[in-house]
Amino acid sequence: MNRKLVLVMTLTIVIIGMLSITFRVQRAEAPSGAITINADGSVDPPTAPIDRDGNIYTFTDNINDAIVVERSHIIIDGNGFTLDGSGTGEQVGIKVESVAYNVTIQNMNIIDFANGIGLISCDQNKILGNNITNNTFNGIWLAESMNNTISGNSIKNNANGIFLNTTSYTTFSENTITNNYYGIWIETNAHDNKFYHNYFVDNSVKQVWSYNSTNVWDDGYPSGGNYWSNYTDVDLYSGPYQNETGSDEIWDHPYVIDVNNQDNYPLVPEFPTWTTMLLILIGLTFAIAIYNRRPNH
Fold first, then answer.
1. To which H or E segment does residue 110 belong?
2. What is this structure's pTM?
3. For a tag site, which of 148, 186, 218, 297 has the least CB within 10 Å?
4. 263 and 225 in contact (C-beta within 8 Å)?
């Protein structure tokens, strides 16, 4: 085989390899099938089951694609429908990145993506009242973002319920974070975030893993902190220093996460109504039995 032919074949192989790599990178950055809410407000493709009314985008059906958000100052309302990633690829269910901010994501089920919701280098967003389950990596992923609000979500059966990296001044409240490997994973430089009135239930490895970060884990007294399913204490005292007589539905001692983080006012679990009624009934039964056994005078 002459040298010129060998050279041509080699160059052809190299070019094909480079094109293959480029194709894979492009797919990773902008996966085919993703729906885009463009900076001008339009939805691409226009056939996506999303109804636009001004700055409010409402699902009209279930969606089996990822959504990329490029427009600021909008509300994306799932309207109770499901955003389903079908358990394939490395997609983020809803991704808001750098060019957009002040985006509200609410009222939807987000399942079977690599990451359910991703906020990357964007601020002042809200994630409200969603069910985020069965995502391979993270239910909610925040990186290099500030001043966001994450509230009222059910975050279950993900590898990490919430993942924070270089994220600050964000509030997490009234979320149920349960049956993930890690409830919350916090990386370096995620600091001054506030967590309160969340329910951490049966996250299998750790409720919270934090590396070299300091955050706030309660809303002060008497509002209180979070419920931790792996923590039981006594509730004999009350007050900001838990040294006043009388219970207050806050455990008397802090829940320690690590040397830099603790919940000063961990919440006592609330009994369900039926449990409370059963306890009252048992108490009344014992009281009546004791009363009836009194000697007659």
1. strand 109-111
2. 0.81
3. 297
4. yes
CA–CA distance, 55 with 50 (Å, rounded to integer): 12
264 is a domain residue: no
**Do 108 and 21 belong together in one domain?**
no
- Which of 73, 198, 212 lies closest to 140, judged by CA? 198
Which residues lie below 8 Å from residue 169, measured CB to CB, with a gap of 6+?
146, 147, 192, 193
H/E segment holding residue 184: strand 182-186
* Preceding peptide of 45 cis, ω within 30°: yes
CA distances from 181 to 138, 162, 215 (A): 10, 11, 21
Q: Determine the Cα–Cα distance for residues 114 and 26; give it in Å rounded to an integer.
A: 17
pLDDT digits (tens, 9 = 90+) for 32-90: 569 999 999 999 999 999 999 999 999 999 999 999 999 999 999 999 999 999 876 67
181 residue type, one letter: Y
Q: Which residue has the tokens 């925040």?
A: 142
**Torsion sign, CA atoms 102, 129, 79, 131:** positive
Contacts of 23 (CB under 8 A, 6+ apart): none
Write the single-letter amino acid at 142: L
**180 and 114 in one domain?**
yes
Contact 99, 73 (CB under 8 A): no
DSSP code at position 189 = T
Contacts of 173 (CB under 8 A, 6+ apart): 149, 150, 151, 152, 194, 195, 196, 197, 198, 219
Q: What is the pLDDT of residues 90-115, one digit of tens each?
A: 799 999 999 999 999 999 999 999 99
Rounded to 5 degrees, φ, ψ at 232 are: -135, 135
Counted residue by residue, the chain has a size of 297
Same domain, 159 and 188: yes
